[in-house]
Design a protein that fits this description.
Layout (H helix, E strand, L loop, with lengths): L2 H16 L19 H18 L5 H4 L10 H4 L9 E2 H12 L9 H10 L3 E5 L5 E5 L1 H6 L1 E8 L2 E8 L1 H9 L1 H15 L5 H12 L4 H8 L3 H11 L6
Antiparallel strand pairs: 1-5, 2-3, 4-5
Helix pairs in contact: 1-2, 5-6, 6-9, 10-12, 11-12
């Protein structure tokens, strides 16, 4: 039975309950049965209608609120992006994208989407340290573009951060459509069930000690989704 068929069956059952009918026997239930309570009946009618709309391709607004949506920016909005003459971090770049959109209730740009795309494009690499930490570093192509490292001071001492000069910032803005398309695919995959082939790939990669970041890139899925799946399968992956 397909998912659509299951939804239609559930809709039919609930609609019958709303009308005071036993969905298994098609016989009227007792007048004293709880399903004949007017408040319960109204709820059944409401749920039945939601399932109908969903089966017909609609999506109830209440359900939409719980589903993550991808970041969207128009041509006019991207022109508002404020470039920095001094190198800035990728989180600051994401913040400036969000400031350029500046629309109440708009989905926020995630800096991880930019980082994923830069790694896929060969401009950043992931260095695995002995303590298990993963550190993003600019590749030779990335450094040529204007990506570099900068030592900063914080409450816990000095730390290194990857920064982007104005040329690198402009490159990211010019390629924002490609970045968002890759992010959109990850959002789409986040709601898709895992296939047997994906599970087998995940098991193989985990057995080889491949870091979760690389697995997520290969599967086009978010890191959180990969971690959740490995936990469900009882697998252990490198950080």
């Amino acid at each position: 039975m397909t998912e659509l068929e299951m939804i239609n069956r559930a809709k039919t059952y609930i609609y019958k309950l709303a009308n005071g009918v036993n969905p298994l026997t098609d016989e009227p239930v007792s007048e004293n049965d709880i399903v004949n309570n007017v408040r319960i009946s109204r709820c059944f009618f409401y749920i039945s209608d939601l399932l109908r709309r969903f089966a017909e391709g609609g999506f109830p607004e209440a359900a939409k609120k719980g589903k993550k949506q991808p970041f969207i920016i128009t041509e006019e909005q991207r022109k508002r992006f404020e470039f920095s003459e001094t190198p800035i971090s990728v989180s600051e770049i994401a913040r400036r994208f969000n400031a350029a959109v500046n629309t109440e209730g708009a989905v926020q740009m995630r800096y991880s989407g930019i980082t994923f795309w830069l790694i896929e494009s060969g401009l950043l690499s992931v260095d695995r340290r002995e303590d298990g930490r993963e550190v993003k570093l600019p590749t030779a192509a990335g450094m040529e573009l204007g990506i570099s490292q900068e030592v900063r001071s914080g409450a816990n001492g000095s730390y290194t951060v990857v920064v982007y000069n104005e040329n690198a910032q402009r490159y990211i803005v010019d390629n924002i459509d490609a970045i968002l398309e890759a992010e959109k695919l990850r959002f789409k995959m986040q709601g898709m069930p895992w296939s047997q082939a994906e599970d087998e790939f995940l098991e193989e990669q985990a057995a080889r000690g491949i870091p979760v970041y690389d697995i997520a890139l290969a599967l086009k899925r978010n890191i959180s989704s990969v971690r959740a799946r490995t936990k469900k399968l009882g697998l252990v992956v490198s950080k």
